[in-house]
Amino acid sequence: MEVTESVLMGDVALVERNLTQLRDHGMSVSLDDYGTGWASLSAIKRFPIDVVKIDRTFTAGLTTNALDRAIVRGVAEIGRVLRLEVVAEGVETDEQAWIAQDLGCTELQGYRYGAAAPLSTLPSL
Known about the structure:
The protein has helices at about 5-10, 10-25, 40-45, 55-60, 65-80, 95-105, and strands at about 1-5, 30-35, 50-55, 85-90, 105-110. The chain is α/β, with parallel strands linked by helices.
């Protein structure tokens, strides 16, 4: 189950309870677009999060922007320490993929690997 940072800003107790129930039933909970909203480290601490997905706005600058690289490295290190999967979203080039992996991202997602496709095409993939 993917949730965005904005979902976490609603009724916090209700969100926490619902996410905990989903996780108790075997679902993995991913925090999508991390870094674009107001979610903080306390959100990662409070909510039952298994995966942090770093927003593509940071991935896009990996090849040219030292600040983006530092942010991705920092989030990846926090993920490693907390035993979370860390996904770099929006990976479009080999160079972005290499850098994201080198910085500690455990998974990569983006057009480098394929575009979004209808569910009906899944068996043929």
